[in-house]
Design goal:
alpha/beta, TIM Barrel, Sulfite Reductase Hemoprotein, domain 1, 2 domains, eight-stranded parallel β-sheet, five-stranded mixed β-sheet, binds iron/sulfur cluster
Length: 362
């Protein structure tokens, strides 16, 4: 049983973060934010996949100006990600950003930061203090050295220094992240940070890599932290379509039994006994179930040796034979169909099950 660390709760739009709120899954768009059509389309795809908070880069005033139209077209809160230019932070909040992510120390001094904080108070916008290993102040690097797993102090002190800059201005609606591209530095950094503060923590590994490398790195680091009760919201950073980030995020939460969303696919790795195109079938089923919300177990198995056992345990399952498939529902033999009818039959049944769930949950 995971014991969650107690943190303060803040609101990102309508989504609570911290305290006893569910650990939320975030992503970040990779469109040009000023291209509202592309950005909105990407966010809508992400929210359908379960993304709960979206961050958009705001590198210029055109991007800040686009936030109004974006937030009105989507249903999840929008965080504006800003570096260096306090005017972009102010403009983003004036345009309705639900939160901003800044590094308070790099906005150009206390007067500029005061303007940002005044605007955040006026619009009731929380601030994520986001520090990265690559952007630590020179004096901290000199004092502690570049952060690593043994000594992540530069990262932590940088975050706490930036938090203090906000607290000095009586601002407390804060969330903190300390990102590193290194798994062990991420784990030791957040462990220590969580002992020093009760602000909610956004956890993640930055520049984690592509689909496989990034998924492994993020899952190891975030898996350890979440299992220790550390982390209130997260993003899996991948050099991929952000939809994959959301998928990996939910699989991570599911594997730790923290949250479930949508069906779970159980599929065998295939072997010399496989007699159907299992890779193709599993991929098509996986694609389909991403849009579903029911917490069903779906098994796709290659043969009748181990297949029926797993398929029977699932809510719905398939065991492949030579050119045919046996479908089980809730442990009972449901149908035997030809291989080319397997996918449509399975999808039709899955849709029925999703509909039934919708009816019973209303
Ligand atoms: S379920 Fe059958 S086909 Fe799949 S790995 Fe096991 S034995 Fe091989």
């Amino acid at each position: 049983m995971i014991q969650r660390r107690k943190t303060k709760q803040i609101m990102i739009g309508t989504v609570p973060v911290g305290g006893d709120a569910p650990i939320s899954v975030q992503s970040m768009t990779n469109t040009d934010t000023a291209d509202t059509e592309a950005t909105i389309a990407q966010i809508i795809g992400l929210q359908e996949a379960g993304c709960e908070i979206i961050r958009v880069a705001v590198p210029d005033l055109e991007s800040a100006a686009a936030i109004r139209e974006i937030r009105e077209a989507v249903s999840i809160p929008v965080i504006a990600d800003i570096h260096f230019d306090y005017r972009l932070a102010v403009a983003s909040m004036e345009q309705g950003a639900h939160a901003i992510r800044i590094n308070p120390g790099n906005l150009g001094g206390s007067e500029k930061l005061a303007k940002v904080v005044d605007c955040a108070k006026l619009h009731q916008v929380p601030i994520r203090v986001g520090v990265n290993s690559g952007s630590i102040e020179k004096d901290l690097l000199k004092k502690y050295g570049y952060p690593d797993a043994e000594n992540p102090r530069a990262l932590i002190e940088s975050a706490m220094r930036n938090v203090e800059l906000l607290e000095e201005q009586d601002f407390f609606e804060i969330k903190i992240s300390i990102k590193s591209a290194d798994v062990l530095t991420t784990v030791s950094g957040y462990r220590r940070l969580s002992m020093l503060t009760n602000y909610p923590l956004h956890i993640g590994v930055t520049e984690a890599g592509g689909l496989i490398g990034g998924t492994v790195k993020s899952s190891v680091a975030l898996g350890i932290l979440l299992h220790e009760g550390i982390g209130d919201t997260f993003r899996i950073s991948l050099t991929r379509d952000p939809l994959e980030e959301v998928r990996v995020g939910y699989e991570l939460l599911r594997s730790l039994k923290i949250r479930e969303r949508g069906p779970e696919l159980i599929s065998c790795p295939t072997c010399g006994r496989t007699r159907i195109d299992l890779f193709g079938l599993a991929e098509a089923v996986e694609k389909h179930i991403q849009k579903m919300q029911s917490p069903l177990k779906v098994a796709v198995m290659g043969c009748v040796v181990n297949g029926p056992g797993e398929a029977k345990e699932a809510d719905i399952g398939v065991a492949g034979g030579r050119g045919v498939g046996i479908i089980f529902k809730k442990g009972e033999l449901f149908k035997k169909v030809k291989e080319d009818e397997l996918l449509p039959t399975l999808i039709a049944e899955l849709e029925k099950m999703e509909e039934e769930r919708k009816k019973t949950s209303h």
